[in-house]
Amino acid sequence: MEGPLTVRQISSSTYKDRNEEYKRQFIHLPDTEKLIADYACALQKDILLQGRLYLSENWLCFHSNIFRWETTISIALKNITFMTKEKTARLIPNAIQIITESEKFFFTSFGARDRSYLSIFRLWQNALLEKSLTRQEFWQLLQQNYGTELGLNAEEMENLSLSIEDNVQARSTERSSLDDCGERDDKLSKSMSFTCESVNRVSETESIDGTLPKTELGKEEPQSEKQIKKNTPLTSEKRLSRVPSKSLDLNKNEYLSLDKSSTSDSVDEENIPEKDLHGRLYINRVFHISAEKMFELLFTSSRFIQRFYNSRNIIDVVSTPWNVEPGGDQLKTITYTVILNNPITGKSTAATEKQILYKESREAQFYLVDAEVQTHDVPYHDYFYTLNRYCIIPSSKQKCRLRVSTDLKYRKQPWAIIKSLIEKNSWSSLEDYFRKLESDLIMEESILNQSIEDPGKLSGLRRRRRTFNRTAETVPKLSSQRSSGDGGLDAKGDITGKKKEIENYNTTLIVAMSIFLLLLVLLNVTLFLKLSRIEHAAQSFYRLHLQEEKSLNLASDVVSRAENSQKNKDQAHRLKGVLRDSIVMLEELKSSLIMLQRTFDLLNKNKTGMAVES
């Protein structure tokens, strides 16, 4: 689970620095936009653009500056059509995809992806519903994201508060007509619910004789619910009758109307107060389990509740012991993590369950426990919580009635669309939860009845049970109809015989498995030997092939050397012939040149002689 983020985890800068940076980089945004959170992340395009994502009440902006290559994106939250949690490279869960009508943006490398997603999702929903943040919500978000040290002085804090109030007032005037319609609808629904409650209570009290005592059980309700219920008449609580009405008896346990002779060990239920919550009644059943055992199964660290937690994917359970409060009630706190499969709520959520055992509860008489469950990592978790009421009423020493009712409480009133989504998901999950709890309790009931009851006494009590208990059909019947002493001896003999049979079966199974494993080992050894032989043959063949290649290479080298020497000799002989021919030609050229020189000398002498004579 991700821990709470502080200013040091989000950024080394203060809120003031980040807000000024946000205003400087996105000057086109209106001045009323105030920074709420910023996250270091990267935008995946052709390359990964590392930058920072800025979140305000109406805008989601991204800025990146890599070697003076700036990328700026501004997305209006109301223009977002879809957003999902994604995985980088289908493996690393650190990405969020934002989808608008025209584009898709894939932001990755988040340090705390789930918390960032929840913040963006909440402001996106507010933008779609045109709901502005109150001043208290705004400061709460700032403290969650930046801590208490915002870097603002008193004057800047006051100006920021005034601007937020002005923005809220401007939004509220635009939606005044819509709010009036919503208030009228809320009042109408509340009046209808009060009318239904009064009718139901009157119908319940008509079948009860006598004066009904007034008791105040349960936690104090929120101030908003107190104000709503000021004008409603106080209704007294009903007491249990011996024959519960068929409308409330979900399992048709008609055997509760017993004769006094058959219920001599029963506990008087007349003085036990009972108050169900106004939500829904999920369990109303009589179990063949004592009230003390039922309380131990449900509200201690029993093996049953541990198995139930594992089946519901509830991990990291940490429980405190029961502590006595100043008012006399006992308090127990349980924290755990629930693994979820809902893409909207995320993969897991932390939860805190506060169990209150009221002082009106009396051991071996009845137990009244309220469990307040608060989830922390789901959208709008600070708006609502669930309240479950467990009422364990003994009907005899070995039987008790378990009534579980639950209601959905609101700390703040959400919008109608969000409220419908919250109620739809909450009621479906609660129904699944308590259906599984009831089925597990039925299985535990059969196991306890098989292991605890004495086989000798079962044969004597079986005839009596046939007259009133219909659920006893789930308990296996005894096949022998002997006396109690003989039946006990036969049962012991059967048990020892079964133990011997089980031991023999286990030994034969172990022997068979050991033989099978030995055969597997032998097969593996033979396979290893064959593989080693094949490898040795392959290596020897490879060596022979290398030797043959070497011999062929040597022979070819010798032949090539002989051929080269012969070629060299032929080339040398040809070169000698060419040199001889060139020498002969040079001598002939020399002789011709000498002859030419002599002719030139004779011509010169003749010219000089003719010149002298003339």
Keywords:
alpha+beta; eight-stranded antiparallel beta sheet; seven-stranded antiparallel beta sheet; 614 residues
Q: Can you walk through the features of this model?
A:
The chain is an alpha+beta fold and 614 residues long. The protein has helices at 7-10, 15-25, 113-128, 135-146, 154-174, 176-205, 223-228, 291-299, 303-311, 416-452, 455-466, 484-613, and strands at 35-44, 48-56, 59-66, 69-76, 80-88, 92-100, 104-108, 280-287, 314-319, 323-324, 330-342, 346-357, 367-375, 384-396, 399-410. The N and C termini lie far apart (135 Å). Strands 8, 9, 10, 11, 12, 13, 14 and 15 form an 8-stranded antiparallel β-sheet that branches. Strands 4-3-2-1-7-6-5 form a 7-stranded antiparallel β-sheet, with helices on both faces.
Low-confidence stretches: 1-11, 181-271, 456-492
Overall pLDDT: 75
**Would you tell me the structural class of the helices and strands?**
alpha+beta
Strand content: 15-25%
Helix content: 40-55%
Helices and strands, in order, run as HHEEEEEEEHHHHHEHHEEEEEEEHHH
User: Whole-number radius of gyration?
Assistant: 47 Å
What form results from the Cα inertia axes?
elongated
Termini Cα gap = 135 Å
Summarize the structure.
With 614 residues, this protein is of the alpha+beta class. The chain contains twelve helices and 15 strands.
Summarize the SSE layout with pairings.
Elements: H1 7-10, H2 15-25, E1 35-44, E2 48-56, E3 59-66, E4 69-76, E5 80-88, E6 92-100, E7 104-108, H3 113-128, H4 135-146, H5 154-174, H6 176-205, H7 223-228, E8 280-287, H8 291-299, H9 303-311, E9 314-319, E10 323-324, E11 330-342, E12 346-357, E13 367-375, E14 384-396, E15 399-410, H10 416-452, H11 455-466, H12 484-613
Helix pairs in contact: 11-12
